[in-house]
Structure formats: C-alpha cells, structure tokens
Write a structure and sequence with these properties.
2 domains; glycerone kinase activity; Dihydroxyacetone kinase DhaK subunit; globular; transferase; DhaK_dom; Rossmann fold; 6-stranded mixed sheet; Hypothetical Protein Tm841, Chain: A,domain 3; Dihydroxyacetone_Kinase
C-alpha cells in the first residue's frame, strides 16, 4: 500500500495510473474511449478522411494530456507514468487509433524519452503504411539560449500547438500543410515560468525540487528542472514583468505585433493570482503597442500541486488567427467559433 506519511488521497501507488485513466474515461464516456491500457481516444476515432492528431507524455499534468481529446484538438493520447514517457508500444497503439487514412501528426514536448519513443513508434506505424510526421514543441525560453532553440523544453506552448493542429485537421488540411503551419506557430511561441513550491511525487512523497522558505525559481520546468535563477519572493507585478520582458526579447516581439496570451497555473496557483498577472501582461503589451487578440487563462498544463505559473505569447498572422478562432470541444478545453479581428 501507499506511504501513509504524506498527504495524497491514493490507494496503492502502484495502481494510480490505471485508476486515474479509468476514472477519467468513466467521467467523459460520452466523448472518449479507452483503446488499450495506456491509449485514450475520441469516441469516434479514427475518423476517415481526416489527419489524426496525437500527443502523449508523462502523467501528472492534467488536464494535459487526456483533457485535450475532442473536436478541434487531439484524436488520441498515449499515457505514461508520472513524468515519464509512454512506451513505444503504447504510442504505436495511439497512432493507429488516430489514423483515418490521411496520416497522423504527433505533437509532443521536447523531452528525450518522448522523442525517442515517438520516433520508434512512428517507424513501426510507417511500416504499416501510415504516414506520420512530428512537431517537437520547444517553447520554454529558460531552458536553452536562443541560438540553441532545439534544446529547449516544451511547456504550456504544447496547448497552443494542439489547438492549432486540431483546428487544421477539422478543416481538412493535409498532413504536410499541418506540419508547415504548426512549425510556424511554434517558432512564434515563447514561454517563461516561475514557481515557489514544488509538486510532491505521488509515487514516493518526495518533492520534485527544493526551495528555501520565501524563495522562488524563475524559469523552473514542469518537472522541477532548474530555471535561470532563484530569488526571494516579489510582488505579482514584479514577477510578471520579469517573465514578460524575458519572453518579449527572445523572439523578439515588437510594436504592431498581434499575439495570443496564455497564462497557465501549475496546480496550486489560484485564479485570483492568474488574473492579477494577466492584468499586468495586458498593460505591458498595451504600452508596447502589441495587440492581444485572444487569451487563455487557467490551469491548462499543471504539474501536480506545484505553486507557480507560466506566461506564453504566440505571435499570430491572419492564418493563425483564423485557426485560433475555430470551435474546440475537447474534454477540458472548449470554445465556440469566434471572430478574432
């Protein structure tokens, strides 16, 4: 049985992934189905004549990844252990579950285990005659310098790419076109996060990283990877301004740009705090002549109960604005068709 000395409402930690998936699917059984032990898909998947969109990764990030299954988002997801990549076989099952005959686009974070296993699974699927392409999401500015963007982690920018790719698939775009436009959106997407308390690993009760009382880490990763510096806690305005300024310089974003803003809570940050942060982001961008055309605010890609948040900016053109405006009816990510000027 589980360790009774830490505060998690679990049964046996050995069964937590199985029980979590089972409970999640039962909660949304009108929308999703369990294809296999670690593969969850749309109820109607595969959809003939549409490019399949899949993702996957370690557990512990709900609503990512399963919460983004649905119309205008993901067709299927491979589920790994806590902060661990799904296996090659589970990813292979997920690609097959999404294949409607027009190929499958895998949209994954830039983590070595995910990349290796998705590559191997894609090769297996291609041997079956399934066309597969991959977008490797690397939006985390803190994790590598700009000249080494290929080494950057994927964080909340994954939500941006899932939305864009899902919209394109619903419109009937080809796999090649979806890859091209997703890569454009990815290049225009940059994120930066902060945290002042770690998550607790549910398998052993250990913190994912350690900070002193009253200390925060700028640029910390979703799994507790090191950021760029540790500081004493500051006001929301000060922290948000720091994150935004780092992001703005990196593309760089400039006067006249139009952006989508995503503020993501990491699990233990209240909506109150996130809206105060958005207020600062809004005012800063307004002063710089950068127009916000859409925002997403909430716990969109968590890390258990980590106390912190991240800010993501995506520079958009008319093509991307149309895709952001499209309807999305995923399990945990919904919007009606919108007009975005």
């Amino acid at each position: 049985m589980g360790n009774p000395n830490y505060e998690k409402y679990l049964n046996d930690p050995e069964d937590l992934i199985e029980e979590m998936i089972d409970g999640f699917v039962k909660s949304y059984e009108n929308k999703i189905k369990r294809v296999s032990e670690r593969c969850v898909a749309k109820k109607e998947a595969p959809i003939k004549g549409k490019v399949g969109v899949v993702s996957g990764g370690g557990s512990g990030h709900l609503p990512a990844f399963m919460g983004y299954i649905g119309q205008g988002a993901l067709d299927a997801v491979a589920v790994g252990d806590i902060f661990s990549s799904p296996s090659v076989d589970h990813i292979y099952e997920t690609i097959k579950a999404a294949d409607g005959g027009e190929g499958v686009l895998c949209c994954i974070g830039n983590f070595s285990g995910d990349i290796m296993n998705f590559e191997m699974a894609a090769e297996m699927a291609e041997e079956d005659g399934i066309d597969v392409d991959t977008v490797i999401i690397n939006d985390d500015v803190a994790s590598a310098p700009k000249e080494k963007m290929e080494n950057r982690r994927g964080v909340a920018g994954e939500v941006i790419i899932w939305k864009i790719a899902g919209a394109m698939a619903e419109r009937g775009y080809s796999l090649a076109k979806m890859k091209e436009i997703s890569d454009k959106a990815l290049f225009n997407t940059r994120s930066m996060g902060v945290a002042h308390k770690p998550c607790i690993m549910p398998t052993n009760g250990e913190p994912s990283f350690e900070l002193a009382e009253g200390e925060m880490e700028i640029g910390v990763g979703h799994h507790g990877e090191p950021g760029i510096r540790k500081e004493t806690m500051k006001t929301n305005n000060e922290v948000t301004a720091d994150l935004v300024n780092i992001v703005l310089k990196d593309l760089p974003y400039k006067e006249g740009d139009e952006v989508v803003v995503l503020i993501n809570g990491l699990g233990a940050t209240s909506p109150l705090e996130m809206y105060i942060s958005y207020r600062k982001v809004y005012n800063m961008l307004e002063e710089k002549g950068i127009d916000i055309v859409k925002n997403y605010i909430g716990e969109l890609f968590t890390s258990q109960e980590m106390a912190g948040y991240s800010i993501t900016l995506t520079k958009v053109d008319d093509q991307l604005k149309e895709l952001f405006a499209d309807k999305c009816d995923a399990v945990s990510f919904k919007q009606m068709k919108e007009d975005i000027n």
